[in-house]
Amino acid sequence: MASSAVTAIEFGRAAPGISVRDIQAAHDFYSRVLGFQKVFENGNPVGFMVMKKDGAEIHLSQKPDHKASTVNVMHMLVSDVAALYAVCEAQGVRIIKGLADKDYGQRTFVFADPDGNRIDIGER
């Protein structure tokens, strides 16, 4: 059980850090396909970037030898999962798990970004 000092602390936004081989290609994917906008970048050449859309935030870090995980690196809730699924299909995004209603009360699918990072999308 957490200490009372920690229990009293309110936690805020959490943003996943996602490693990518080519940060500019990742920027193109997340902006063109998912509508995220770059709000911060760091380095020369750029090695770190913050992308935002509505309440969602992603921190991209360039790692040229990045190897994709076989587990999801991010779960994101959206207001219309079927519409986003259709966008992903139309853009040729690799779908890992198709659109499905889950017994835990969400409709979900999983896709992979160009670096193979698995993103789990859900709607309550």
Write the layout of secondary structure elements.
Elements: H1 4-7, E1 17-20, H2 23-32, E2 37-42, E3 48-53, E4 56-62, E5 72-77, H3 81-90, E6 94-101, E7 107-112, E8 118-123
Parallel strand pairs: 1-4, 5-8
Antiparallel strand pairs: 2-3, 3-4, 6-7, 7-8
Search tags:
about 120 residues; 2,3-Dihydroxybiphenyl 1,2-Dioxygenase, domain 1; 4-stranded mixed β-sheet; MMCE/EMCE_epimerase
Describe what this molecule looks like in 3D.
There is one protein chain. By secondary structure, the chain is an alpha/beta fold. It has one domain: 2,3-Dihydroxybiphenyl 1,2-Dioxygenase, domain 1 (Roll). It is 19% helix and 40% strand. It has three helices and eight strands. It has helices at 4-7, 23-32, 81-90, and strands at residues 17-20, 37-42, 48-53, 56-62, 72-77, 94-101, 107-112, 118-123. A hairpin with a 2-residue loop joins β3 (48-53) and β4 (56-62). It starts with a helix and ends with a strand. The model has no long low-confidence stretch (mean pLDDT 95). This is VOC family protein. It holds the Pfam family Glyoxalase. InterPro entries: Glyas_Bleomycin-R_OHBP_Dase, Glyas_Fos-R_dOase_dom, MMCE/EMCE_epimerase, VOC_core.
Helical content stands at: 10-25%
The coarse silhouette is globular
Structural class: alpha/beta
- The strand order across the widest sheet is 1-4-3-2
Total tally of structural domains: 1
Query: CATH superfamily membership, which one?
Result: 2,3-Dihydroxybiphenyl 1,2-Dioxygenase, domain 1
CATH architecture: Roll
Protein name: VOC family protein
Organism: Camelimonas fluminis
Domain VOC: 10-124
Keywords: Metal-binding
